[in-house]
Write a structure and sequence with these properties.
Blueprint (H helix, E strand, L loop, with lengths): L1 E6 L3 H10 L4 H23 L6 H5 L1 E6 L2 E6 L4 H6 E2 L2 E2 L3 H21 L5
Antiparallel strand pairs: 1-3, 2-3, 4-5
Length: 118
């Protein structure tokens, strides 16, 4: 499976810190991750080259755990379309989909973790 993970390597520590925040910061971050994963999925589908449509239809977002999202495909040739093979350049559809949505993701994430003290 080819995938791009929206995941912090120290997710447990981040979860603990978010749990300590007030006003539902963790829930807001989860919402931002859900929205971003769906945007990346949609963008990847738009960027995917189409022959039969199988690859495009297979692209999906998943939630493997708290503060984790993946977007990818379980089609066996997805990696070759992404990275290239046998003299054919890759399209980078997943990587480009994430990069196109990165600025919005960062801005929404910043908004989600801002909070006011009483």
């Amino acid at each position: 499976m080819v995938s791009i993970k929206i995941n912090n390597g120290q997710a447990a520590s981040l979860i603990d810190k978010l749990n300590a925040l007030r006003f539902g910061a963790k829930a807001r971050v989860e919402t931002v991750l859900d929205e971003t994963a769906l945007l990346v999925e949609s963008t990847a589908k738009e960027l995917t080259p189409v022959d039969t449509g199988r690859l495009r239809a297979s692209i999906h977002a998943d939630k493997p755990g708290p503060l984790q999202r993946t977007v990818g495909s379980d089609v066996e040739y997805a990696i070759w379309v992404e990275l290239g093979a046998r003299g054919r350049p890759g399209t980078g559809f997943l990587f480009r989909a994430f990069e196109l949505n990165r600025p919005r993701f960062i801005e929404k994430l910043k908004e989600a973790i801002r909070f006011k003290l009483l």
